[in-house]
TrEMBL record:
Record's keyword terms, sorted: Membrane, Transmembrane, Transmembrane helix
Pfam family membership, one: DUF1523
TM ranges: 159-178
Species the sequence originates in: Cognatiyoonia koreensis
Keyword Transmembrane in annotation: yes
UniProt-recorded name of the protein: DUF1523 domain-containing protein
Length: 230
């Protein structure tokens, strides 16, 4: 039973971690290569990887989506340590409006213009930090959604994810608060009930044992009478 609880907790923790990894903002140092617009089919299960900016788009099976093609600096340790090598990364540029995840993005056209202004070549690069959420998966055509872009002086810029740090601090605080409230509630309400139930069970066990002993003594009196007759 203990092993089952441990496995269940690990599964819940894994799902929670995947949701956070998908939804929390990430930052990449990139060089914008090109921007374009392409019509995408949204008629299968991969629709979950695309934004739903309005009610009308929820009923469409395809729509035009803007993309930003970049060369991204590789990183290690979830993006905290930059490396010298690069890789290709393509971002989609969609409004999220009031849908999940709650970035309240309404400036797709402005962001596309800013990305156009940062297009550069390898000989004369312009580097930028692009903020996004989501995953890139070539097999299901999933693209991270760009939220913001800003120019930087060099690809060696240090990025501190202040929002993510604050988010985990708040989550840890509320987790500790809920845990403390639960322990206090358990000490005041649950444990006394369990102790009372345990005492009642012990009393019941003692009563049953006493009755059994009385029946045993009564049976012994009849056995003695039978022995006297013989």
């Amino acid at each position: 039973m203990k092993r089952i609880r441990t496995i269940f907790r690990l599964i819940v923790l894994l799902i929670f971690g995947l949701v956070l990894h998908y939804a929390l903002p990430q930052h990449d140092v990139v060089r914008v290569v090109n921007t374009y617009q392409e019509r995408q089919d949204l008629n299968d299960w991969t629709r979950v990887f695309w934004a739903r900016p309005d009610d009308q788009s929820a009923t469409l099976i395809n729509r035009d989506v803007q993309f930003i093609q970049t060369v991204k600096k590789r990183t290690m340790l979830l993006g905290f340590i930059p490396r010298e090598t690069t890789e290709v990364m393509v971002y989609r540029n969609e409004d999220t409006n009031f849908s999940w995840p709650f970035y309240f993005k309404f400036d797709t056209a402005n962001l596309q213009t800013e990305a156009d202004d940062l297009v550069s070549t390898a000989e004369n690069p312009k580097w930028a930090v692009i903020t996004h959420y989501g995953w890139r998966n070539e097999y299901v055509s999933a693209f991270p959604n760009a939220i913001a872009i800003r120019p930087v002086a060099s690809p060696d810029v240090t990025i501190i994810p202040w929002f993510n740090i604050g988010f985990f601090v708040v989550v840890a605080f509320f987790f500790g608060l809920v845990r403390a409230m639960w322990r206090q509630f358990r000490e005041r309400s649950v444990d006394p009930l369990l102790d009372s139930a345990g005492d009642q069970y012990d009393e019941l066990q003692a009563s049953v044992s006493e009755r059994r002993s009385r029946i045993g003594r009564w049976m012994d009196t009849w056995r003695k009478k039978d022995d006297r007759r013989h």
